[in-house]
Amino acid sequence: MQTKIKHIAALVVAVLLVAACASIGSPDGGPYDESPPVFLGSTPEPFALGVKDKRVTLEFDEFIKIEKAAEKVVISPPQITPPVIRANGKKIVVQLDDSLKANTTYSIDFSDAIVDYNEGNPLGNFAFLFSTGDRIDTLAVSGTVLNASNLEPIKGILVGLHSDLSDSAFNKKPFDRVSRTDADGHFTICGIAPGSYRAYALQDANQNFMFDQKNEMIAFLDSLVVPTTEIRMHQDTTWIDSLTIDTIRTLPRTHYLPDDIVLLAFTEAPTQRYLTKAERTELNRFSIFFSLGADSLPLLTPLNFPTEEAYIVQTSLDYDSITYWMKDTTVFYQDTLSFALTYEYTDTAGLLVPRTDTLNLVPKKTRAKILQEEEKKRQEALKEREKRLKRSDTIPEPKPEAKYLSVKIKGSTSMNLNSNVAIDFEEPVVQYDEAAIHLYKKVDTLWVKVPHIFRQRKHELMGYEMLAEWRPEVEYKMTIDSAAFVGLYGLHTKQRETKLKFKSLDQYSTFYLTVQNAQPGYTVQLLGGGEKVERQQRVVKGQADFFFLNPGTYHIRVFNDRNGNGVWDTGLYDSKEQAEEVYYFPGKIEMRENWDYTQEWNPTALPTDRQKPDDIKKQKSVTKERKSKNAEREEKKRQQQQQQKR
Predict the structure, then answer these.
(1) How far from the centroid of its chain's Cα atoms is residue 520's Cα?
(2) pLDDT digits over 267-309, tens only?
(3) What's the rounded Cα separation, in Å, for the pair 39 and 50?
(4) Using the 8-state DSSP alphabet, how is residue 505 labeled?
(5) Which residues on neighbouring strands pair with residue 238, listed in sequence order?
(6) Are residues 493 and 511 in the same domain?
(7) Which pLDDT tens digit goes with each residue over 87-138?
(8) Range of the domain at 433
(9) Strand order in the sheet with 139-147
(10) Which residues, listed in sequence order, are joined to residue 55 by a DSSP beta bridge?
(11) What CA–CA distance (Å, rounded) separates 558 from 568?
């Protein structure tokens, strides 16, 4: 009788554990997992007090295994030395290597790592608690971790609580209590003592449970977390079988709050400047990269090649990446290019100071290697020619192929009215004749020359564009005379002609978006497939209008451009600055040809964790997928039962 009572008590405790430490809702078992493992008992017992043994043994009703224990099983307080967790038949043994803290509640959260050996059915959201003191803490909090830039649920990120409310605790102390998010980004932290806490998320690269590396993804809550409970009534249903209800009872249940914490995770932008990489991918050029931009170019002093106009410089907008195109072939044929590079560097005090490095760059393919490959190709061509000569009396001598400066023209007969013709080169252009570039439009059967602007695109060394007063349904012709452009290494372009035609007005849609309660920095982005930003427009007086919009399916995203730089910016923990807010319209917009579409939207109407539409989430909901499979199985079972009755 005593054994039976203990067995029943263990089952009751297991149910309580799931209720306290699982995500709100049905466990992962449910109808789909018809026979997950059943927890029978443990040593020490669940909720045991005064525990001194660092070994925990859990027993189940069937053979089980542990899936991805290092990723899914989380122990609170966190263990600096990883515990040993192994399955043995119908038992799981957890061996804690760290010393047990006095008067502390320990929780072992298995999530869905425990599965039966044969079918892999998980025991969903299972946790085990015990205490080294004379009482056990049973409070719990739960919520979701999302990527701040796109509101994607983040799987497997660490979530922790600090009772030390100082800002430095996150950087210097391990968490008091921890959990890890599931595939839907949800987490539950249990075994919490009454009090006030700060909540954080951490992609813990070095597994020390503190934020001490700037490349770790983090999140922090601005407000304090105060765990509480309340009694809520719920319906308990007893089933005769999968289709027939026996009884429905309304029972009280302890509900743990808060259960709606939302942590928005981001990776801080680099704050220290240093040289990240220097490489020479080709003989004729080399590149250097910095962790941060600067106001000016670094000073490059050649050591084994001439300093006078030795190169052309191609830079990014803020000088964080720089490519040097060598002019002289006799210079870049060298296997090694040596130079001193003086640049601004962040020292240990956080100050920008000058630093000089000596760099020796070797190409991936040396000149000798390139010549060797060319000779190999030439020999192969000669062998092929000899084979063909044996099969034929005469073979025409191959004509030497003329080499021209390569150019790509992005223009077509289906151009958008809000676009221009782009011209891109594979090497810097040292000279071009604007008079050799012509634009015509077709009037009846004649080509009439029209005015245009040809210019280099801003901050693009090898990119140019042609602008004109484009008209819908009008045919244009752009011609480039021979030798209009001359490249860095002496090649010139050949004669080119490109036909252009712009779409008619009735091929476009117009989208008028009214944004309610708009903040000054709200910026609307229309997203195409893969969340590619197709168009972007700042909200002015609550309105963002999009003209000449191609028909298709769009989603809408808004970010609060607080600093007005036109791009989404991440956060910074030291200054307690959250990443710029992001909102998603909870649906999609279907735009058709010759159609005006009007939409009103309040970006803050829905909670953040319910905004992003499921159809564009990369991290698909495991819970919804399981429910869908459950429904499919139940429908098949229902059909089978109906057939049997017939």
Answers:
(1) 27
(2) 999 889 999 999 999 999 999 999 999 999 999 999 998 877 7
(3) 22
(4) G
(5) 247
(6) no
(7) 999 999 999 999 999 999 999 998 888 998 888 888 877 889 999 999 999 9
(8) 407-503
(9) 186-192, 139-147, 261-265
(10) 95
(11) 10
What b-and-e string marks burial along 310-342, b requiring 16 or more CB atoms within 10 Å of the CB?
bbbebeeeebbbbbbbbbeeebbbbeebebebe
Measured CA to CA in angstroms, residue 513 lies from 488, 505, 520, 538, 560 at distances of 48, 20, 16, 11, 16
Type of residue at 644: Q
CA 645/CA 353 separation, integer angstroms: 85
Asked if residue 371 belongs to a domain, the reply is no
Single-letter code of the amino acid located at 624? K
Sheet holding 453-456, edge to edge: 407-410, 421-425, 463-467, 453-456
What one-letter code names the amino acid at 290?
F
CATH number of residue 337's parent domain: 2.60.40
- Tell me: do 351 and 480 sit in the same domain: no
Residue 106 located in a structural domain: yes
Please state the separation of Cα 372 from the chain's center in Å.
43
Q: What is the CA radius of gyration of the chain?
A: 34
Amino acid at 398: P
Same domain flag for 419 and 492: yes
279 beta partners = 287
CATH number at residue 112: 2.60.40.1220
Domains in the chain, number:
6
